[in-house]
Design brief:
- By secondary structure, this protein is of the alpha/beta class.
- The chain folds into 3 domains: 301 residues, Thiamin diphosphate (ThDP)-binding fold, Pyr/PP domains (Rossmann fold); 183 residues, Thiamin diphosphate (ThDP)-binding fold, Pyr/PP domains (Rossmann fold); 133 residues, Rossmann fold (3-Layer(aba) Sandwich).
- Helices cover 41% and strands 13% of the residues.
- It has a 6-stranded parallel beta sheet, with helices on both faces. A 5-stranded parallel beta sheet has the order 1-2-3-7-6, with helices on both faces.
- Helix 1 runs antiparallel to helix 11 and helix 12 packs across helix 13.
- The termini are far apart.
Length: 679
């Protein structure tokens, strides 16, 4: 059979996917084999990237949403000239390789996002496309299309079943993101069987109802021209995202093609042999790329290098015409904050009125929004409660709606917590944007999968989580977080801030904004808190610090968030009774853990009992305190917040009693043992 070079390239991808999964004795060959044609057309004819400069600002962004098909992406990156060698393909799924089982942006050159759980990739892509639309609106000028890249996605049936994807594609259609183009690998097979056993709706009608442009390719196994024509048509549609449904056969060419078992296990040796013979390859050779395929992709690489040179020349000219904007673009994509930005942070004194820390957050956002254009903030339909919108904010909307425009920096996500977090990840991955998003702390777990991926990807995103404890009161236990911060505090590479007053809110933003490679959760109160004497933004950045002290302290009261003021009240009572007491505020356990041993000993003097207080579950505080005051193995209740603090014994009186018990106990046994005592 005579094959064109494009057909030869497609079949090369198919046999390489079979070789990779067989060598690893692990992986998913079926999807890469079925999606090989669409992947080849996209990478060899459309994708405008820079394999030698993966940070090229105006590159097209490609997302493999069905991340189990990672072999497909790795092969295409290798062919296109990225720093991904044939040896890397041979090391698929091995320890320390550049080719892990699912795409990880921190491990593989050329990857834009980390996709693992289905639905995340397409949702991230909405954020990537939204970021492009925003930066285009802010920085492009007549004759200077600095930002005009496309976002391309390959996704599968599973992605379109996931709830997060449904939320995200709804927003993409609402925003009319015309530079978002998705290739839907419609192979009609899932792990549990044929698609009809679990998914009978017309997903394309649903997307059309969401405002998407829909195209269909009937033969995604063989018809290169149809796929190419569909992508060209999609690029011509400027006011709608496009979904191209491409009908394929999973495991195309295999003896078990179109069967569920070809999805997630390597092909047999005999199957791979007949596959290679069928496609014109030597069955005794592995990991082979024919020279004509190399030549095709080398030619494409040269085209891409010329396109990047053209953009660089355009940006040089832009820099001369618009030097301020050009410098700002470069600063933003470096991740650096504007010089001296933190100097606008306000300061507060005990004489200032008490306020909820969510209100302090609003004050800080109003100060920062004018000096940090990188900020794009939003809320999942609770803006008046989160207080995440600053006074001069314009809403991010397609200009045709007359509800805002793409230069707007405030995003109305609707009741879509998970999509909000996933879209924030996409924005952070695009570059030049610091995404912030708000909801209630208890609803954070609606989108936890995306927050976890932000930590895994080492991306700066800031989650403004209000209504942070039983202190929210009457809304009751469905809204009162008990376990939420135990989850965030135990997650690697994620900072959790629970500030006790307005100064600590400033310090939390100061620290979070400076974290280029870590996301941050800001846990903020609904009820008013006093501004504490001794509180400081600088101390917050160390995670924990001495708020107030008495000479030769016999006990240390450790407070966080709204309960720090209760610790201050208890310390006064103890002091009046002649018991010298230190109060430590700990707004961020993770930052404290990173301090020197010397500093830690200066805050928590060895041999002095520590009593913690937090109106959440007590799990985790055994790392810092001998005795804990908080919610023990139960949920909250619906009542005014002051009554709840009394009911659950999270009070100054309870803290005083615990402190006395601890002091007496340790005096009795003659020493203060290791942490984790239950009194």
């Amino acid at each position: 059979m005579v094959q064109t070079v494009d057909q030869r390239a497609v079949n090369t991808v198919r046999v390489l996917a079979a070789d990779m999964t067989r060598a690893a004795n692990s992986g998913h060959p079926g999807g890469p084999m079925g999606g090989a044609l669409m992947g080849h057309v996209l990478f060899s004819k459309f994708l405008n990237v820079s394999p030698r400069n993966t940070k090229f600002i105006n590159r097209d962004r490609f997302v493999l949403s069905n991340g189990h098909c990672s072999a497909l992406q790795y092969i295409l990156l290798h062919l296109l000239g990225y720093d991904l060698s044939m040896q890397d393909l041979k090391n698929f799924r091995q320890l320390g390789s550049k080719t892990p089982g699912h795409p990880e942006a921190t491990e593989t050159p050329g990857l834009e996002v980390t996709t693992g759980p289905l639905g995340q990739g397409i949702s991230n892509a909405v954020g990537l496309a939204a970021a492009q639309a925003h930066l285009e609106a802010v920085y492009n000028r007549p004759d200077y299309e600095i930002f005009n890249n496309y976002t391309y996605v390959i996704l599968g049936d599973g992605c379109l079943m996931e709830g997060v994807a449904l939320e995200a594609v709804s927003l993409a259609g609402h925003w009319k993101l015309g530079k978002l183009i998705c290739l839907y690998d419609a192979n009609n097979i899932t792990i549990d069987g044929e698609l009809k056993v679990q998914f009978s709706e017309d997903a394309m009608l649903r997307l059309e109802a969401c405002g998407w442009h829909i195209l269909v390719v009937e033969d995604g196994n063989n018809d290169l021209e149809a796929v190419e024509k569909a992508i060209e048509e999609a690029k011509a549609v400027k006011d709608k995202p496009t979904m191209i449904k491409i009908k394929t056969t999973i495991g195309f060419g295999s003896l078990i093609q179109n069967e569920p078992k070809v999805h997630g296990a390597p092909l047999s040796v005999d199957d791979i042999k007949q596959l290679k013979e069928k496609f014109g390859f030597n069955p005794d050779e592995t990991f082979v790329v024919p020279q004509e395929v190399r030549d095709l992709y080398d030619a494409r690489l040269k085209q891409l290098e010329e396109q990047e040179k053209s953009w660089n020349a355009l940006f040089d000219s832009y820099s001369k015409r618009f030097p301020t904007e050009a410098a700002e673009i470069q600063r933003r994509f470096s991740g650096a904050m504007p010089e001296g930005w933190h100097e606008v942070l306000p300061t507060f004194s005990p004489n200032d009125p008490a306020m909820p820390t969510r209100k302090a957050s609003e004050i800080v956002l109003n100060a920062l929004s004018d000096v940090i254009p990188d900020i794009m903030c939003g809320s999942a339909d609770v803006t008046p409660s989160n207080l995440t919108r600053w006074k001069t904010a314009t809403t991010f909307q397609h200009p045709s709606t007359e509800l805002g425009d793409f230069s707007g920096r405030y995003i109305l996500y609707g009741v879509r917590e998970h999509a909000m977090f996933a879209i924030m990840n996409g924005m952070a991955c695009y570059g030049g944007i610091v995404p912030l998003g708000g909801t209630y702390l208890q609803f954070m777990t609606y989108g936890w999968g995306s927050i976890r991926l932000a930590a895994l990807m080492e991306k700066r995103a800031i989650y403004i989580m209000t209504h942070d404890s039983i202190g929210l009161g009457e809304d009751g236990p469905t809204h009162q977080p008990i376990e939420s911060l135990a989850l965030t505090r135990s997650t690697p590479n994620l900072l959790t801030f629970r500030p006790s007053d307005a100064n600590e809110v400033c310090g939390s933003y100061w620290a979070a904004m400076n974290e280029l490679h870590r996301p941050s959760v800001l846990s903020l109160s609904r009820h008013a808190l006093p501004n504490l004497k001794g509180s400081s933004a600088e101390g917050t950045r160390k995670g924990a610090y001495i708020l107030e002290d008495q000479e030769n302290a016999q006990v240390i009261l450790l407070g966080t968030g709204s309960e720090t003021s209760i610790a201050v009240e208890a310390a006064k009572t103890l002091g009046d009774e002649g018991i010298a007491t230190r109060v430590v505020s700990m707004p961020c356990t993770e930052l404290y853990d990173e301090q020197s041993d010397e500093y830690k000993k200066s805050v928590f003097t060895p041999g002095v009992p520590v009593i913690s207080i937090e109106a959440l579950g007590t799990w985790g505080w055994e790392r810092y305190a001998h005795v804990r005051v908080g919610m023990r193995n139960r949920f909250g209740a619906s009542a005014p917040y002051k009554q709840l603090y009394e009911k659950f014994n999270i009070t100054a009186d309870a803290l005083v009693k615990k402190a006395k018990l601890a002091i007496n106990h340790f005096n009795k046994i003659g020493y203060v043992p290791d942490l984790n005592l239950d009194l």
